[in-house]
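Researcher: Good morning. I'm working through a list of sequences from a screen, and I'd like to move beyond sequence-only analysis. For each chain I'm collecting a predicted structure so we can compare shapes side by side. This is the next one on the list. No need for commentary yet; just the structure.
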Amino acid sequence: MQVTVFLLLEILAFTALSTFVIIEFVTPLAVKLGLVDRPNQTRKHHIGDVPLAGGIAVFISTVLGCLFWFGESIQDLKFYFLASSFVVFVGILDDKYELSVRARLVGQAIVSFLIVIGAQTHLSYLGDLFGLGGVFLDPYSAFFMTVFAVLAVINAFNMLDGMDGLLGTVSIVPLMSAGFLMLESGSYMLAMLAFTLSSAIVPFLVYNIGIPGNKLTKIFLGDAGSMFLGLSVVFLMIAGSQGAETSFSPVTALWLTAIPLMDLATVTARRIYKRSPIFSADKEHLHHVLMRAGFSRKQILIVVLCSSLAFAIFGVFGEQTGLPEPLMFAAFLMCFGCYALLIHGRIRQQKFLAYIARYLNRRRQTEFG
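Model: Good morning. Structure tokens for this chain:
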């Protein structure tokens, strides 16, 4: 497939327009089927019932976009789309019936097996992390490492979906970054998949965040959408960093997905330390901490998006300029340590984060007051 700027823009426009149309059809159907998010007294404070149509619409438009552009070549991605269909189905059941943790994990494990066994996508090479040579995994270790990675990223994205626009914008960053690197290396089909996914998310954000003055029906991604995006990102990260012809190193994949992974790791470690159930819902995620520190929702969205962009830009820069992998890995661990101390350490939001929030709010009042 010869990819030109015109073809790329055509793909983005077609997918975005089809997503707008699909949202208009799927939203009333979701309401009729009872796929709505109802507010409660604990974690859900939105106004009224909100249709969980975003994820379904993004999935359908991605499939249609890939069918339109790839034609019969889409067979090369058949197991990815099979796994995606199943994870969306599990997500719809979870949105409707609130599945138990065990049922969700079983469904996600099946999805992992489809990716590993069916798509033959294995995480068998971890890169030269310590400057001692490449770290290779034997087939059994690679199997379990891949299953663990798929489960971790799916749940990381699911956990991050707690505020309007947050997961959608954070998902576009690794998708566009990976798409660029894949395009550079000649992995055109994977690059087009990444760009198609990105363009399908944008119309959802219009409905989810809203535009001043419009009267569009507000929708959420739902578990179907968050798990689908998590699966798509981890599939592209593994497919792009493994095999004979790679688009980027495994450590670059860490930088592209830094925010979801850091949020998952710190929240999980905190729950283990407190002896709380790992999959129990709480208010210790990044957006919760920033909200308690005094940041507005708009400020949180900007802070998280800019942080995600900064990590991804460094990852792409390191990949393009050939920075040593041990250096990139050490820098990632340092950033992760700073993140953990800042968000969950003793110098939490009461001090540094609260100071930043007050400063931003004072500037906003000065400019608009």
